[in-house]
Amino acid sequence: MSFLNIRKSPGTGLIIALVVLVISLFLRWITPPESIEQWYSRGIFGWFRWIWDYSLGWSPLPLFFLFWLVVALLIVWWIRHIRRQSGIGQKLLVASRNLLVFGSWLTVAFLWCWGFNYGRLPVERQLDFTTYEMPLEELIDSVRAGAIEVASARAIYAGEDTTAMQLDRSPAEWESLIRPLVKQALIADGYPVPGRPRGRILAPKGIILRFSASGVYWPWAAEGNVDAGNHPLIKGPILAHELAHAYGFGEEGTCSFWSWRAGNYAEDPLLRYAFQLHYWRELARKWLSVDREGYTKFYHEELAPGIRRDIIAIIENQRLYPDIMPQIRDVAYDAYLKAQGVDDGLLSYRRVVKLVEGYKRKDR
Predict the structure, then answer these.
(1) Strand-by-strand arrangement of the 215-218 sheet
(2) Sign for the pseudo-dihedral over CA of 232, 346, 197, 53
(3) Which residues contact 125 (CB under 8 A, 6 or more apart)?
(4) Pair 102, 242: CB distance under 8 Å
(5) What is the pLDDT of residues 56-112, one digit of tens each?
(6) How far apart are CA 31 and CA 223, in angstroms?
(7) What pLDDT, in 10s, does the model give residues 120-172?
């Protein structure tokens, strides 16, 4: 930890950290998307994925927890170091330097290990299609038609049973089921799939759900994580979303797009239904947001009872884990996304429908 030891080289360590940070940020913002796509996302990042996944990636425990353990140990070490300083002024100075150096190196690691992917070519440019915003009438027709398809998919697994589905899988099974689907989707559209990114189910239940997140890709752990408290019907699509992050995509709508694409390769009837239901709910939310009365009438009078009960089960399950400071989380994450060049911030999650519908019309 000599590069963090401000006591031995208080000026040099800080200067080096700041210089590397400024250079990294400068490269991130001046490099055009085409170059980031070619040299970083399909080059440097791929090498990082291979090295990481076949070393630390073999850890039986989620590296998300290892990251926070290391942070905790560093804090203890810094506190002991700061306490040896004389005078409150000196203590504050050393604490500030330590924090600045650590924050600088943490940002540098974020950028070079994953963050440059925010600047890569948008998926619609790479795959040569245009995003599509459906008019309301077309949206309503799509929701109605989609409900019939989802009901058919459910019937393949459940038959005429309309009770809410409860079947779950073990953490290892989720990873082995979902990662191949994401790989198939990416390969089919000409994207590289380097390494063997992990898809972890984090316990205890609610550990990230209480922070308004069903899943998270933690760049310093380089793994996709899904909260164990999620309802089984959404664990698969969420894990696919997080693994899309792990394969080098930053923008949220894009990762949801890859989750939808991955679901198209699912052969397991229950898993295929789960992916179809997940995307159909995105369409339904759009209808609900602009025509609450019309959607509510459809929901109660036309939607298949089994689907309705599954949706209720998902919503009731989410309510078991109330958010901790949701407004602060939303503001912070919105600011973070915008700082990475995602102009829509949190609204980028909603871009998935435009991407999917545009992709469907690609060859029409």
Answers:
(1) 199-202, 223-227, 215-218
(2) negative
(3) 33
(4) no
(5) 999 999 999 999 999 999 888 888 877 777 777 777 777 788 889 899 999 999 999
(6) 26
(7) 999 999 999 999 999 999 999 999 999 999 999 999 998 888 898 877 888 88
C-alpha closest to that of 117 among 53, 54, 31: 31
pLDDT at residue number 7: 47
Separation between Cα atoms, residue 346 and residue 329, nearest integer Å: 11
* DSSP strands (E only) in 228-359: none
Contact 199, 239 (CB under 8 A): yes
H or E element at residue 19: helix 10-30
- Number of Cβ within 10 Å of residue 227's Cβ equals 23
**Tokens of residue 28, six digits:** 């991130």
Residue the block writes with tokens 């996302």? 41
Does residue 6 carry a pLDDT above 50?
no
Contact between 20 and 108 under an 8 Å Cβ cutoff? The reply is: yes
* φ/ψ (deg, to 5) at 303: -65, 135
| Residue 275, H or E segment | helix 269-290
Q: Could you tell me what percentage of the chain is helix, strand and coil, using 3-state DSSP and rounding each to the nearest 5?
A: 70, 5, 25
Model confidence band, residue 5 (pLDDT cutoffs 50, 70, 90): very low
Confidence (pLDDT) at 4: 46
Q: What pLDDT is recorded for position 330?
A: 59
Phi, psi values for residue 226, rounded to 5°? -130, 135
Token duo for residue 39: 């040299």
Q: How confident is the model at residue 275 (pLDDT cuts 50, 70, 90)?
A: very high
- Burial classification of residue 343, based on how many CB atoms lie within 10 Å of its CB (0-12 exposed, 13-18 middle, 19 or more buried): exposed
The residues pairing with 217 across neighbouring beta strands, listed in sequence order, are: 224
Domain residue extents for the chain: 2-120, 124-360
DSSP string, 155-192: HHHHTT--SPP-----HHHHHHHHHHHHHHHHHHTT--
Which of 197, 207, 181, 178 is CA-nearest to residue 65? 207
Under a CB-based contact definition with an 8 Å cutoff, are residues 115 and 219 in contact? yes
Residue with token string 């909260």: 227
CA of 360: how far to CAs of 95, 260, 353, in Å?
Answer: 54, 12, 11
Return the DSSP state at 326: H
